[in-house]
Amino acid sequence: MSLITHHEVPIPGTYMFDGRAAMKGYALNKMCYSFNNAENRAEFKNDEDAYCTKYGLNDEQRKAIHERNVLAMIHAGGCIYYLAKFAGIFGLNVQEIGAQQTGMTLEAFRQKLKDQGE
Amino acid sequence: MARVVGGLTTSHIPAIGNAVPREKELANDPYWKPFFAAYPPARAWLQKMNPDVAVVIYNDHGLNFFLDKMPTFAIGAAARYENADEGWGIPKTPPYQGDPELSWHIIESLVADEFDITSCQEMLVDHGFTVPMSLFWPGNSYGGIKTVPVCINTVQHPLPSPLRCFKLGQAIGRAIESYPKDLKVVVLGTGGMSHQLDGERAGFINKKFDLLCLDKLVNEPEFLTKYSIHELVREAGAQGAEFILWLAMRGVLHGHVTKIHSSYHIAVSNTATGLLVLENAA
Ligand SMILES: [Fe+2]
User: What does pTM read for this prediction?
Assistant: First the structure.
């Protein structure tokens, strides 16, 4: 039978969003979940700091949000499904987020996707 | 008695939700052409089978469920399901008809079968549910079909194992077959195939593994139930673990399964897309 995930050999560059991460990132993810609502998106855009305070983000999470740094958000407990809603506010799609996290240009990232089909 | 006529699997990428209303104008677009070209045979098969109900096995990506309450298995029991704003602006789709009587029959049967289910009398359905419906019923022509949403947690680990999801599907199959009304039921498994959105491994795709899955799912699904979630994430990527939804779909098909159509394409958005049409004979 399979064992609990964090006892397994880690997969490089891959983060299991488990209970530990879900606890750590709760405030950040809750804020991003609120972006399902257009009024909340507008409120965030109007005053980012106040919005982060309203949701109780810690310093690490605030910094990651401020810098639009997706990897830092993940390290701060962010879950990509909710973070995608944050990225959506800035019109960033998952390819652009992928390029950012892998340190590639968008063109190179797209080429990498394509090449895996050969 | 109700009868499962077959199953369909498809990717449910949000980008498709944006493209699908423009399918005609994108027919010769080099990016979209190979993707959309795969769907007419699936639609033709659906039209021929003319099902009354679609059981849609999908995952929610943070529209209906948040981390405050995260059910492993949730089933809709509403007369109607709505889509809503997910934050990044794919067009909202028209509402979906439910079948509360069949939903409760499935829920009761599953709990009797030792699957502990969260029943939902209100449930928003996100792109995991809506994109496949728009793909299989072009122009959102799903008005005549009733739906039963089955939502499996793929957001927060621990996720239910591939074996557990396959067994859930088998139990759903038994539930449908014990339903006294004469209904033709089609089952959808959505999501996949290999993809990873987050981390330094973002953009990971594994064609070899996807093709193995597409092949084994038809006649040897038990082979795929031997994977752990961790192994599935390693082979298919962090979000490729959505393949458990396909395995649940396959579990529902108890009879003699014939492959009608399949397709595989790299890539739409960050994802290898897959399509499979399986007919289920008694
Ligand atoms: Fe998904």
Answer: 0.97
Question: pLDDT tens-digit profile of B19-54?
Answer: 999 999 999 999 999 999 999 999 999 999 999 999
Mean pLDDT per block of 10 residues along chain A (118 residues) reads 59 96 98 97 97 98 97 98 95 93 96 94
Tell me, in angstroms, the distance from the centre of ligand 1 to residue B60's CA: 8
Please name which of B66, B154, B157, B171 lies closest in space to residue B116, comparing C-alpha atoms: B171
Q: How far is A49 from chain B (nearest CA, A)?
A: 20
Interchain CB contact of B238 with A (< 8 Å): yes
Alpha-carbon distances of B77 from B42, B117, B127, B190, rounded to whole Å: 27, 11, 19, 20
* Domain parsing of chain B, residue ranges: 3-280
What contacts B27, CB < 8 A, 6 or more positions away? B33, B36
Distance CA A8, CA B50 (A): 46
Question: Catalytic: B261?
Answer: no
Question: Rounded to an integer, what distance in angstroms lies between the CA atom of residue B70 and that of residue B73?
Answer: 9
Domains of chain A from N-terminus onward? 19-89 (1.10.700.10)
CATH topology assigned to domain B3-280: Protocatechuate 4,5-dioxygenase; Chain B (3.40.830)
